Amino acid sequence: MSEESRIKVKSTRLERPVKASIGGIGGTLSSARHEITTIIESTCGSFKTVLDFTVLTKVTHEIPSIPYTNLVWPIPPQLQLADPHYNIPGRIDMIIGAGIFYKLLKGGRFNIPNSNISLVETVFGWIVTGLATKTDSSDSPNVTCNMTTVADIQQQLQKFWQIEEVEERTILTSDEKRCEQYYNKTTVRDNLGRYMVKLPKHPDWEQMIGHSKSTALRRFASLEKKLEGNEQLRVQYNTFMEEYISLGHMSLATNDSDSSTNYFLPHHPVIKEASTTTKLRVVFDGSAVTTTGKSLNDALLVGPVVQDDLLNLVIRFRKFPVVLIADIEKMYRQVLVHPDDRSLQQILWRFSKDEPIQSYKLNTVTYGLAPSSYLATRTLLKLAEDEGEAFPLAAHAIKNQLYVDDLIAGADDVAGAIQLRDELNALLEKGGFKFRKWCSNLLPVLDGLSPELLGTKSSKCFDIDETINTLGIRWEPQADRFGFSVPDNIKAEPYTKRNILSAIAKLYDPLGLIAPVIVQAKILMQSLWVVASDWDEEIPDHLQKMHPRLRTGPVFTSEPKTATAMFQ
Prior knowledge:
Layout: E1 7-11, E2 16-23, E3 29-42, E4 48-55, H1 98-104, E5 105-111, E6 117-122, E7 125-130, E8 149-150, H2 153-161, H3 174-186, E9 188-189, E10 195-197, H4 205-208, H5 213-228, H6 231-246, E11 250-252, E12 267-271, E13 280-284, H7 296-299, H8 310-317, E14 322-328, E15 336-337, E16 346-349, E17 358-362, H9 372-387, H10 392-400, E18 402-403, E19 406-411, H11 414-430, E20 435-440, E21 468-470, E22 473-476, E23 481-483, H12 497-505, H13 515-530, H14 541-546, H15 549-552
Parallel strand pairs: 10-15
Antiparallel strand pairs: 1-3, 2-3, 2-8, 3-4, 5-6, 6-7, 9-10, 11-17, 12-13, 14-19, 14-20, 16-17, 18-19, 21-22, 22-23
């Protein structure tokens, strides 16, 4: 389909991730990473259908490959052409496969006298087809093949299971490019140096978002009921909300009308017992659907990943004799959202049932929205670009040694680590950010920091077996090594498929350091699947004999121990 054709295309769903190999002539292969659902309509008839398309950077070369302006065929004027500029090279936006091709034909056909050219009637108008030769060119003809095949299911399944491969990604999708352009165009700083961003929206976002207040009210009633039954949770939730208001991250909304320009976010608590700071965090649900069946997240663009992958960061981290870790306090909430977009971040809240339910606007980048991670991490990079000249060590670390809000960096000696630490603090202060939970394998690096900024219990000495959680991994600063705590959730018999699966899911190993252990756990799970074991019944005897640890002692323990002893 060229851009001059009489086909109207309307997107009905945002791009979805997919892995597919597209085969062309000569066995050439290209990879597709996204697919999209669209409505295809004819502008010269009533034909309309919904199709799924694989998204490629470029579909094919321009067609025709050379212009045929010197050839004029006697086309009857009453025939409406699907592409009036069929003889001039043009961009191809879409290829429709054979699965629907014959539904597009209407049966009409007209042969042009004294030529190999025919006109064929379709739902989009008449198309010109046949063999044409340009006689005034000495160049070799260009041949274009428009046939594609998708790799067979066996190859797709094989790629699906190759999840451990590191994916190289250099090309941005059209939506990711749009996000970058929109961010650079709309991001500003206030008089204190803090950054203010706008939410990157789908072009049809106003049509995608419907009414949302009734859903938010229903979810809020359920939340209040939950808080009434748990006094400790209610106190923690109220404290979190009070802090949100006192810091200016949330304020009363003056207009709470339920329309497509106002979106009400349901919210709920998430408890993180391992956290040394905030045990409870309120998460806002941007995926709650509205009356259109779409949510705010459906109407927002996600944005590209702008930080390096976890594996590369940790490998660099292991190179330094002196290491330094920290995290950024309330990173998302240090980035302001433009007042024009805050109506899309409204919540319903009251501190007690004696008060009326009120609408509040969230004034900062918010957990639970699709582009939040991009907006926050992209702002850190912009801070490094804007202010990094005065802090070269810190700017390099921000660009290369941050994973979301976690810093894992280092230096060759203590003096270098202290200089890096001080530069990082100074650079982040320029943008309204703040590092906390500082830790190092050498305590002198922490000298001069106030106790509330430390990730260790003391800056004078390490406690026995003291560990720090970073990037979801347990790190022992004194020994400078990673470890794994084994979850304690199936100690007591009977051992069931549900408990075993739950335990496997809690084995977080992004670097594959204990892959041999996890593989054995998954083999056990596959065995349970083969014998169709019920979720809550004790697993069969012969499988317990295959894995004697299930009988002779606890498979999992909460105490630090050698991970390879889990399955033997």
